[in-house]
Design goal:
By secondary structure, this protein is an alpha+beta fold. It folds into 2 domains: 69 residues, no CATH class; 262 residues, no CATH class. 17% of the residues lie in helices and 24% in strands. Strands 3, 5, 7, 8, 9, 10 and 12 form a 7-stranded antiparallel β-sheet that branches. A hairpin with a 5-residue loop joins strand 8 and strand 9. Helix 4 packs antiparallel against helix 5. The chain is globular, with a radius of gyration of 22 Å. About 3% of the residues have low confidence.
Length: 343
């Protein structure tokens, strides 16, 4: 803090420390995805369906626990300049929304359920009703990545356990500090807890209520882990961000776990009602592009950047969380000063 105060005292006499390309904090809204796919092994029409589901095949050999997932992609390059390098993007906040079309088929649960609360075929050991709706980043295997996997790409090739367990080429994932993806599709079988980026929330009903048709769920998060920042930076550098939606409401009956209906059915962008009533998935993303040293976004690094940063830091504004760990401390000050002095 003493170094920061020294700069506050000296900066007026130093004038502008340097000129550089102006940083920008952009807040962009997308009312429909450019890609949405029901990422389910037995889906014969990926990318063209009017509805998409998410459900679990809980601990059923041959099927992923998170059996039916949804893949969403939003092209950002037209609003957030791509190709600057992954380290030139710091995502400050994200909100994804999805709207469901089925009526009173599953119970609203806005809280995380750990893996050890799931019993055989989804009999719950936790104390609250229902199962949450989860938002993740997306990982890839089988030689695929974000630049090669699309709505009509092959779901997968060889299953770890036939017919479909472990074969999906694009999967709901967490990322470690090195940016390495962990597939969470079978975290119940593999007995590890997987914490999503966000859990779907709605103010339309109370926890424990059945969810009525046309309910919109919001998935909001501020990135707090290095691996998430790294992956989001890579995606923005490519000009598109992608997310996966999963949930573990256990599908009822049938060898493939898909019969019965006690899980969400989501509107896709192709659904006519999505286009008329605005039920398509949406994204709102706030991102800083460029160096946080130009904190007031005027292309110069001077006293005004320091003053603006100090105000934001004191008020715990997300833009002042320079390290992106969702805390406000000396490390943010040090990171800002480094960016301020080096550009």
């Amino acid at each position: 803090m003493n170094r920061l105060l020294t700069y506050l005292i000296l900066a007026p006499t130093l004038g502008s420390l340097a000129q550089s390309a102006a940083a920008q904090v952009l807040d962009v809204q997308y009312d429909t995805p450019t890609l949405d796919r029901w990422n389910y092994p037995f889906n014969g029409s990926p990318g063209t369906r009017f509805e998409m589901t998410s459900f679990g095949a809980i601990e059923i050999p041959g099927h992923d626990d998170h059996d039916a997932q949804v893949l969403l992609g939003f092209t950002t390059a037209n609003d957030i300049t791509a190709g600057l390098g992954p380290d030139q993007y710091q995502v400050l906040s994200v909100t994804v929304t999805m709207t469901m079309s089925n009526d009173d088929d599953f119970i609203y649960d806005p809280t995380h359920d750990t893996f050890d609360t799931y019993g055989v075929l989804g009999e719950p050991f936790d104390t609250d009703q229902g199962r949450p709706l989860n938002l993740w980043l997306t990982g890839y295997r089988g030689g695929q990545d974000q630049t090669t996997y699309f709505e009509s790409s092959p779901f997968g090739f060889t299953a770890d356990v036939p017919p479909s367990q472990g074969m999906r080429n694009a999967f709901a994932a967490t990322f470690d500090t090195l940016g390495i993806a962990t597939d969470v599709s079978n975290n119940l079988k593999e007995q590890f807890d997987a914490v999503p980026l966000a859990i779907g929330q709605t103010n339309a009903i109370n926890p424990g209520d059945l969810v009525p048709a046309d309910t919109t769920f919001s998935f909001t998060f501020t990135p707090c882990q290095l691996g998430v920042h790294l992956e989001l930076g890579k995606m923005l550098d490519l000009g598109e961000v992608r997310f996966s939606i999963s949930s573990l409401q256990a599908a009822i009956g049938g060898p493939d776990g898909g019969e019965g209906l006690n899980y969400p059915v989501w509107y896709s962008r192709e659904n006519p009602l999505s286009q008329i009533l605005g039920f398509a998935p949406t994204l709102q993303i706030q991102v800083r592009v460029g160096s946080p040293g130009d904190f007031n976004e005027d292309g110069s690094r001077d006293f005004f950047d320091i003053a603006t940063f100090l105000t934001a830091f004191t008020n715990n504004e997300p833009s002042a969380d320079i390290t992106g760990d969702c805390s406000f401390d000396f490390f943010d000050i040090a990171a800002f000063l480094t960016a301020f002095t080096t550009g």
